[in-house]
């Protein structure tokens, strides 16, 4: 196995692992709309980090970095929206 093939395998394994590790929380939050145990500052920082990795993935042409973090960024934004609605929207 050459070095480039190993790099691609590692990229796909990392992408799949991160997405499958993050997606269950996103799906559960979207289904139940429960966000009591979710840290708002934590999700803001996660979204910022994912967005930075999306930009880096575009700049260096790394498809694994781009796709993985684009998916997690979208999930973070959705959860952030639900969290904001639960914490501040219901009080009005």
Compose a concise summary of this entry:
This protein has 92 residues and is mostly helical.
End-to-end CA span: 60 Å
Number of continuous helical runs: 3
Percentage of residues in strands = under 5%
Give the oligomeric state of the chains in this entry, treating copies of one chain as homo and distinct chains as hetero: single chain
What does this structure look like?
The structure is a single chain. With 92 residues, the chain is an all-alpha fold. Helix content is 85%, strand content 0%. α1 runs parallel beside α3. The termini are far apart.
Q: Which secondary structure elements does this structure contain, and how are they paired or packed?
A:
Blueprint: H1 3-32, H2 40-60, H3 63-89
List keywords for this structure.
3 helices; 92 residues; elongated; single chain; mainly alpha
